[in-house]
Amino acid sequence: MLKDRLKELFLAYDPSIQRIVYEVGELEQQYIAMGRPRVKEQIDEIITRLARQQLERDGTEDYDLFNGE
User: Fold this and answer.
1) 60 three-class SS
2) Rounded CA gap, 69 and 67, in Å?
3) Which of 15, 28, 46, 61 measures 20 to 30 Å from 52, CA to CA?
4) What is the pLDDT at residue 4?
5) Rounded to an integer, what distance in angstroms lies between the CA atom of residue 31 and that of residue 55?
6) How far apart are CA 66 and CA 28, in angstroms?
7) Alpha-carbon gap, residue 37 to 54, rounded angstroms
8) Quick check: helix, strand or coil at residue 66?
9) Can you give the pLDDT of all 69 residues of the chain as single tens digits?
C-alpha cells in the first residue's frame, strides 16, 4: 500500500517530518477525487502547527523560524 511505502521512505527522518508527510497524505486522500483541489492553506496549517509543537518541546518557542533569531 502507498501509505506503508511512504512510511518506509521516511523512517530515518525526524518524527516531525514523518508527521507532516502523514497528515499531508491524509489531506490529499480526502481531496483525491477532486480535479485540482486548493489545499495549500490546510498544508500550511499542518506544517505550522507541527513546527510550533516541536519548538515548544525543544523549549525554543520564541525562535523565529524565518529570521533564525
Assistant:
1) coil
2) 5
3) 28
4) 77
5) 30
6) 26
7) 28
8) coil
9) 567 777 788 888 888 888 888 888 888 877 776 666 677 788 888 888 888 888 888 876 554 544 544
DSSP H helices in the chain? 2-9, 15-31, 40-58
At 44 the three-state DSSP class reads helix
Cα–Cα dist 37/30, whole Å: 10
Residue 22 neighbours by CB under 8 Å, 6+ apart: 6, 7
pLDDT at 69: 46
Q: How do the domains of the chain map onto residue ranges? A: 2-57
